[in-house]
Design a protein that fits this description.
alpha/beta, 18% strand, two-stranded antiparallel ribbon, six-stranded mixed β-sheet, Molybdenum Cofactor Biosythetic Enzyme, Chain A
Length: 208
């Protein structure tokens, strides 16, 4: 990982079947709707396509850490698996544009991958290239992810939160979340944001 990437939060803190979510759901305003997607007043069920169980790919971007030392990746895996999701593939690549872009592109092209989470390379040092490598793959960007992550980070580490360029978007119909490299930042982003929205985003983005 790069120095700045870790500084942001350091010390502070192959095909499977998916089930559609069942039962009463809540829309973005918190009002319950029937599974049919209509409560009798013409309101659409925003969660009708949510996925309960996802196949997730995890990528660590680091020129210094090996798989055995990938503690940030371990955090992502632990949090996602605790929510019932499956880690279908995991890799560690060095901080290089082609390495990162090629791996993420390969991940989103897999039929068993519903979401991708990366860690590392989102800082401001010269070798922090994850954002530059991944954003060209996005057909849609999700700016709210980075905005929310930095807001939550600010509550823990203050203005140093601006040093992270955490981002997210949809690539080939698959949500991709790019987090910083420190364990604390990864835990914050995965626990507070990713697991809360990944099923919803994957279901919507993956519609034919």
């Amino acid at each position: 990982m790069t120095g700045n990437d870790d500084t942001v939060a350091e010390g502070d803190h192959d095909q499977h079947t998916h089930d559609q979510s069942g039962g009463a759901e809540h829309n973005d305003l918190g009002h319950a709707h029937e599974q049919s997607g209509d409560d009798g007043h013409g309101h659409h069920d925003h969660h009708a396509h949510d996925l309960d169980t996802l196949g997730v790919a995890v990528l660590t971007v680091s020129s210094t850490r090996t798989r055995a030392e990938d503690t940030a990746g371990d955090v992502i895996v632990a949090v996602l698996e605790s929510e019932g999701h499956e880690i279908v593939t995991r890799d560690v690549v060095q901080d290089a544009y082609d390495n990162v872009q090629g791996t993420v592109d390969r991940f989103v092209g897999r039929s068993d991958v519903d979401a991708v989470v990366t860690t590392g390379g989102t800082g401001v040092t010269p070798d922090d290239v994850t954002v530059e490598a991944v954003e060209p793959l996005f057909e849609k960007r999700l700016p709210g992810f980075g905005e929310l992550f930095r807001r939550l980070s600010y509550e823990e580490i203050g203005t140093r939160a601006i040093a992270t360029r955490a981002t997210a978007g949809i690539a080939d119909g698959v949500p991709v979340f790019c987090l910083p490299g420190s364990e604390s930042a990864v835990r914050l982003g995965t626990e507070e944001i990713v697991i809360e929205v990944v099923g919803h985003l994957s279901g919507l983005a993956g519609q034919a």
